Amino acid sequence: MTNNNIPLFSTLSTMTIQKMVSPHREKQDLTKGKWCDILLADDDLNILESISSCLKNDGFSITKASDGRAALEAIKKNYFDLIISDLNMPRANGLAVLKEAKIANPDTIVIITSGDQDFESVSEAFHLGADSYLVKPFGPDELYRHINKCFEELEQKKRA
Question: All domains of the chain, ordered by start, with CATH?
Answer without folding.
Answer: 33-159 (3.40.50.2300)
